[in-house]
């Protein structure tokens, strides 16, 4: 069996923001706080949606999946990034780099599909309310979520294996704070065309296609809302849809900028800033925008918290 690493590279140096020490000291407390909020907010959503029977619906099933995804996604790189922000030893082993790359690709890709599934779920609930329980059955919910997780994992494993089998020569400095696949490919001295084709096809399938479905779903939702006679109902629906679209546009906008722009050999600090934007800020905002503004979630949280204190 051929070794995965043909050139004997045992570790990589994650350059990150090492050229900007002031920025490092600023990012450490900021990213620590955002990561803590992400963990607490998303964990609370998962716990509440499991413990409260009123939230055992397709909408909250997908929200629970999104929360688990956000926890997994940020945990693939934020803890190590925080350590490196305070340390001069910013190395990561070859194997750990491959694992980090695969997991971050998988969870990030799954989130792209899950956001589209959630938009479709809202379309059925608002535009087809009478048939919604039949169209969005429990079996279909499990099938949609499970397919998204499995397909994106297989896709990410394939992309990671192809990338990490390339020969690496010269320096081993990754111009990023994580083993981001585009940054690692810049170190390869072999032909990267196969890896780039896989990434391009994956980017097209996971970015413009789901985003188009999301936009179509919300266009139909808004058209239905405009026909609602109640002014208060329209305002509530508009507020919810605009909040959801804000997260979608933030996430997809920054990811599309990263993965569908023309490739360059030179690293840019803007790439890392955009990665922080979609990889740290968006998971923190999701609990607030998708759930914590929701009256049902607030009531369920108070109910669960009340039972906990009553049991004491």
UniProtKB/TrEMBL annotation:
It comes from the Eukaryota. This is Olfactory receptor. The keyword Cell membrane applies. Gene3D superfamilies: Rhodopsin 7-helix transmembrane proteins. Coiled coil: none annotated. Belongs to the G-protein coupled receptor 1 family. The lineage of its organism: Eukaryota, Metazoa, Chordata, Craniata, Vertebrata. Residues 41-290 form the G-protein coupled receptors family 1 profile domain. It is found in: Cell membrane. It is a multi-pass membrane protein. Keywords: Cell membrane, G-protein coupled receptor, Membrane, Olfaction, Receptor, Sensory transduction, Transducer, Transmembrane, Transmembrane helix. The keyword Acetylation does not apply. GO terms for molecular function: G protein-coupled receptor activity; olfactory receptor activity. The chain crosses the membrane at residues 26-48, 60-86, 92-118, 139-158, 197-225, 237-260, 272-292. GO terms for cellular component: plasma membrane.
């Amino acid at each position: 069996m051929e070794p995965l690493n043909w050139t004997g590279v045992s570790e990589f140096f994650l350059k990150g923001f090492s050229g900007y020490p002031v920025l490092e000291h600023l990012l450490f407390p900021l990213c620590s706080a955002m990561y803590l909020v992400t963990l607490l907010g998303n964990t609370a959503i998962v716990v509440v949606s499991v413990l409260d029977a009123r939230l055992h619906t397709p909408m909250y099933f997908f929200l629970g999946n999104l929360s688990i995804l956000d926890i997994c996604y940020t945990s693939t790189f934020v803890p190590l990034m925080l350590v490196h922000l305070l340390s001069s030893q910013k190395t990561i082993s070859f194997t750990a780099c491959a694992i980090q790359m695969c997991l971050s690709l998988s969870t990030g890709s799954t989130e792209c599909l899950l956001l589209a599934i959630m938009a479709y779920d809202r379309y059925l609930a608002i535009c087809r309310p009478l048939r919604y329980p039949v169209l969005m059955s429990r079996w279909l919910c499990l099938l949609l979520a499970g397919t998204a997780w499995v397909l994106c994992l297989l896709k990410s494993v394939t992309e990671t294996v192809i990338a990490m089998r390339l020969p690496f020569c010269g320096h081993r400095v990754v111009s990023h704070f994580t083993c981001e696949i585009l940054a690692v490919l810049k170190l390869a001295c072999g032909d990267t065309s196969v890896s780039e084709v896989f990434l391009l096809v994956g980017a097209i399938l996971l970015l413009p296609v789901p985003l188009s479905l999301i936009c179509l779903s919300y266009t139909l939702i808004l058209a239905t809302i405009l026909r609602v006679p109640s002014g208060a109902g329209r305002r509530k629906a508009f507020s919810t849809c605009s909040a959801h679209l804000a997260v979608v546009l933030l996430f997809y906008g920054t990811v599309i900028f990263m993965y569908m722009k023309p490739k360059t050999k030179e690293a840019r600090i803007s790439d890392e800033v955009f990665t922080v934007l979609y990889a740290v800020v968006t998971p923190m905002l999701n609990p607030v925008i998708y759930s914590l503004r929701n009256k049902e979630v607030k009531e369920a949280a108070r109910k669960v918290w009340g039972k906990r204190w009553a049991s004491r």
